[in-house]
Amino acid sequence: MCTLEPDVAAVRGYELRLIRCTLSPSQPSDIRHDGESFDGLINDLLKSIECGSYVQALTSQPSATVFQLGGHESLPLDAADRVYSELVQRAESFITDAASNAAEQRRRAVIVMCLAVAAILGFTQANFTG
Question: Against a cut of 0.90, is the pTM above it?
């Protein structure tokens, strides 16, 4: 029997799914939404990653929310390091500023981690494996 809190066990399950799909794309597992608002977003991102649809994950609503895209504030496009720094700052802000409790903060971190994994796997697919 699992002795972890249900919230921690759920986050560990998401992490294990991410690890599994970095080894090879697989068929998404059919997991029901638990009713928590972020669980549905995480499962949608994981399904995209598991299917190898990295662009779909990176252009999803969670990605736009995390990186505050599509709003009035645009990214500084004059230098790559400034774009990277701004995206990191927005991701950190998404995790820490709006989180009302530790459980929500962990789920927000998993969303950012999913987007990071989708980005690296998408880059690898586009540039190395085709």
Answer: no
